[in-house]
Batch of 4 targets.
Target 1
Amino acid sequence: MIITRKEAVCMYFSQECTDENYEKFSKKIEDFGVDVGGMDICYLEDPRKPVVVSLVRILADPYQYKRYITNSLVSSTIESVKEKPELTTELQVVKFINYVYLPDVQLNELAYKEMNINMKDIFNTVNMYTDIMINRSVQSFSTWCQKKGILLFNAPMNRKRQKTSSVRLRRVYVLKQEYLDNLAESIINYIPEFQKHINNLKEKGYSIVGYARKSEGKETDKTRYRLLERMVDCLKSRSLVNMVFVSPCCSSSSPLTSRDLKGKSIALEKIAGVHGNTQDLINYLDTTDDNVCLVIVDYSGLSTNVNDLKQFVSNHKKLKKIIIDQLPFKHETKVINREIILEDPSVLSIFNCRTNTNQRSKDI
């Protein structure tokens, strides 16, 4: 969902979204920040719930205080084209397409325009922001989009007759061109801002702890060690964890406190960079004086047993945050705070989600 800064400002003050109201209430936000070095509108999780926060806090942690997309007028000069932000991974491209072309919109979002569009138009727009597709044909690009589950394929399709052929068109909502640069930049900056947030937590005294698990399977011990070691490396390189605990062989639904009770049945010393198993993690949570942020790769990387997970969080008071790293699959992360879990355990329902298997050892 894309909500512009203009919409957010008017929404915050419960006013109709007009140019006049936007200018009036943007000035009001400026006035709020006169004595604190400036303020701006942003959001924490839901863009439909804007908040006004000091610029100092926003700039210090742009991952937590997310700013709204703004109008960046596109210049037609060749020089400006070269300066366009460049998407460098397929995941970034998927994210970009899924934001730019929507089969439907919510709240009559003003950033979008309903129109008929063909794959050639989409292909040309994407190639303005990446070189990844430069060697593909339009047909090859279309096939790639289908394999990636691009959302616009949920939109109805019709054919338009031309002189010598017919063109397939889809009726979709397209993000207006003046917002494309800003969107691409926000996607590119996502991981650096996430890592800046992790470092901010460290500065506040948090211990950033990773956890990885491997399900029972038929692979050899050597393969199991290798896959677990890759998960550990990903947690360290992407999420900057200080230490990592692993469960070498358990199901995603098994109670956390029952895991690895038989000791180190698989020699953990064969997995580089590991600080212990699940029982060692539990002992650490029980004895540390630091607030702990637990980082996992995907929801099933911790547990799909929602009731057990709620009890686990409740039992360990130093466990303050859980971060779910889905960067290799969706270019996303999610932070769930302890207070929210205890107040509304239903937030953990997202862990009951194992309908398919994501490769947790996968790098970006």
Target 2
Amino acid sequence: MVVLPPSKLEKMVPSSPSRRPLQSLVAAGGSAVTTWSLLNSTTPKLYQTLPFTLPPPGHGPNQARQDAPHQHQVILDPTGKFILSPDLGGDVIRVFSINATNGKLDACPSLTIAPGSGPRHAVFRAAQSEISMVVQQEDGQPCRPKPEPVPKSLASVALYVVSELVNTITAFNVTYPTRGCLAFEEIEVESTFGNKTAPSDSAVAEIHIAGNEIYLSNRNDKSFPSAVPNTNASDSLATFSLRNNNEFQFRTLSTAGGTFPRHFSINKAGDLVAVGLQFSFKVVIISRNVETGTLGDVVAEVDDLGQVTCVVWDE
């Protein structure tokens, strides 16, 4: 399940008819998106449930992984007026507008992704800033990243989607009609491994933007042999450079510091990357050159943490 931070969700709807802020959470899990009211209590109260089904024949091309809708994330767009949710099972990004009167989500046309690709996570880019800040909750307490400021200028907005089943990153230009829902135009699709063939059973997981770079985590690719005898090879983090027209170019793969980088986050200064390594049972800290965006060595780590699925900076 994923939820958006309350501090950002309070801005989703400026006010209700009574002029009181509408506070709510939005969560994705299983085959539904739900909204939860926090208006009169600190305990979330279920406000809206939006279940999904797949059209006939009731599954996607990858029947083992696409037997039903699988919502993996919810993200808020730069204007704070729309919610998006990647559906790995349905090969779509489900799009909703936020009703300014009651805070409910109204369905918009979905963004269709290539059949069998399995979209997992996405991030907006506007004015060189990352807009998508999500909170993941998997078998434990929710992680709560600090919300980033929303850029004032929306002259150029793009959406970047990583698809788990085919290891791709896809870019879309996003436009805002005077009325109605978002419009998307596909720009580019590339492998998360650049020109290298994706290793068998590898799977992209997370995506973030910092400065002029996109960073992705690749799970189970074993791209970097371990320096420690009798230990598993390390999986990778991929770096892409962003261009002015929202296109991107593969730069390099670098070590994730262990196996199955399920989640990672970049600190506010931009010089450190925390990586949650699910099957290495640890968190590692990797250096990042703020000027060049290059990822460096592991500078610290904490072991014996169990299956880490989320790591965020408290700053």
Target 3
Amino acid sequence: MSDSWFREQIAPDGEVEDGCHPDEAQALQSYLNNKTSPQEAAHAIIQPTLSSEDPFMNLNSLWDLLQEALIQLSATHIPRLITLLQAIQDLPDPETTIIPTETADPEERFTWKELPRFGHLWADTHRRDRWRENLSTALSSCPTLENRQKLRATHIRKAHVEAQLAVQNVGGIPLLDWGYETIADALERSAAILDFEIPAAREWIAVAGKELYQGAKEGRESWALRTKRDMGKEDERMSLGRWEFWEQRMRECQERSEVLEDAGHWAAEEMRKLRESEK
């Protein structure tokens, strides 16, 4: 693991808007090099936040460091990074729980439980609402197969990380909402970017399939299903019928390209197994 990645994350001028605190980078590097336990690393990595004049603002740089690590470092580090986040969630709350600063609501309570603002920062940073627009810009600036493959791999990695965080109840990621949104967008929109969205949907099914299917059995409501999609069901409730519709769409998509063949076939089979396991 290169030292340069950790150096690049540090704010050169000490401003939290430009990067993380050196102690945060050092704590993370020591942990990933197996020099500290999750609990030791969690205690060390939050110290700059606790000593900051504006802890809420400093949180953004800490979460940004850990989120970048989840996306950019080797995928083998993902389980340990999530374990570190769980250790931070388990930390006792600071003695001062209300921080009246210009950047925080005077009544906002500072607590490590659910990692305050983590999920919101993830959504904002990775622009879940505008990723297609950003993808179009990136592909227009460099319309090569290599660039498309690189961007696709990053998109799939993000879906995998989101699903893992949601299943393990880390950071307040809404499992059903984000999972259903990813799958419905891939399978219920004629304008879906299939080589990106079908593999991303596969990641959610692979990681959180049981939870997503349980939601279908229970007829759970989700804001993600309220969105009108031209090939979908206009119903905010998930259902077994919709699950079977998604399974069929996966089988249809797998015939379109080599990229979709593997992801679509695997996802459809996994969806079938989950459905038949309940019979």
Target 4
Amino acid sequence: MQYTLATLAFALGVSASVLKRQDAANCFEIEVSGSTPARVGQLDDGQLRVGNFPAKTFRADGNKITDDQNRGCVLTGDPGQFQCDQGAAPAEIFSGQPEGDLKHDNDGAFFVCEADQSSFIVTTKATQAKCYPVTLKAVKSDCRTESSSSSSSTSTTSTTVVSTGPLPDECPVDLNGDYEFPHLIGPIDKDIPDKQTGTTLYGQVTPGISTIFNFDVPTKYAGRRCTLNFFLPTNEAVGNTANTLSGSGKVEFSQLNQVASQQTTYNSAPAEKEVFVVEQVGFGFAKNIKSIDCPAGNTVSFKLESVEGTDLFYRQDYAQPPTGPVGLFLRVC
């Protein structure tokens, strides 16, 4: 069966053009090849996105890739989401750059999967129905840093929005507006206290396991309100029985006093800055947990842990009702 990106390209209004290389450095842009090609951009937090984003420039260093902010590019979690993280060592698994078909571990399989109504993430596995197999092609480009990009190409993504009126106390309990998906979801286990969290798409709490969530808050959210929202729809709505809940159903939400990382362990986890609330969750639960002034330009870490024997396991998903969303999100208003 032949797959195309025609629908994606027309829906998102992306351009097939790429910049021509003007110097000898190993810089390139990434083109998503299909019957209608598209180019790859980024969110402020480093996630690669296909949509109405300016094309981003990447740099090849052997089998490693960094972005134009010198962040190391990696494949994270079970779906292998392609992103570039501040302070991360670039994964030594890529080939084909700076010119040619991009591969990971000598495998050219990539997918674009719907993130929201206007963009797609890039992964190495199909994680949902709206995922499409693609080829990523490295196209040589002149080397640029984010600060040297033209104002015409960045004005739509770098505008700082500052509220001129009173901020709302809470944002709506939905994802029908600006929101952030966690950039790190990492379990810590007191029975294996030196095991590093890594990152995954699964939230898990048991009497011995807690999960830490990192949200990278873009600078454009300065002066706005951020609400931590938690969703746990019924398995009937989600369409599977993978999400499980037993015990008292009580869980504790807290903010940590420092930022966690993929190297964080149970023993090294930051202390709690503030315990927000203990909630008794159940299937069908959807609620604002805590509202704060958006920490624009910063990363913030939260923790979810078991109270009175709760055992909860779910797959984080940004899908719209009735199948989602599922998990912890930072809603912006």
